[in-house]
Amino acid sequence: MENFDWTRFTIKIAIKAGIEEIYNAWTIPTEIEKWFLSDASYQDENGVNIPKDQNILKGDLYKWIWHLYDELEEGVITIADGYDSLQFTFAGTCLVDIQLREEYEYTIVELTQKDIPTDDESKRNIRLGCHGGWSFYLVNLKSVYEGGLDLRNKDNRFKPMLNN
User: Fold this and answer.
1) CA 144 from chain center: how many Å?
2) Domains defined along the chain, listed by start
3) Quick check: 117 and 126 in contact, CB under 8 A?
4) Is 110 helix (H, G, I), strand (E, B) or coil?
5) pLDDT of 104-133, one tens digit each?
6) In angstroms, rounded to a whole number, what is the distance separating the alpha carbons of residues 71 and 78?
7) pLDDT, tens digit, 9 for 90 and up, residues 27-76
8) Dihedral sign of CA atoms 113, 84, 164, 60 in order
């Protein structure tokens, strides 16, 4: 573990869907709720609510809630280029970068979470915990957009599980 980078990680997945569809999966509230969140609400810089069917923009504030969890994640969209790049604050001071690119008939989704603090709690909960969480949710993104099956557990009788 001597050379292990606790401050960042990158994971990738290939999804057989168009780049615009996958960009919208990240940036339209009703779409991100299909594979990632139970509720995604956004406000612009002036505090005006963003409609659920509208793409978010740079500077928008978010409030995210997951199925079966009470935690509320709040942050800001720092990059939203309308095509292949998105960045947002996450887990305190961290940044998450989403880069999309087309390869053959696939869209490659590359997620990097960076600026992870190096205290023991952050190593465990953010570096390791978020890596596991993002890995599942990227697989779920692929499942939803390639076949329509949402793999998330939404039944509170089964908590915690790999898929929630």
Assistant:
1) 14
2) 8-147 (3.30.530.20)
3) yes
4) strand
5) 999 999 999 999 999 999 999 999 999 999
6) 22
7) 999 999 999 999 999 999 999 999 999 999 999 999 999 999 889 999 99
8) positive
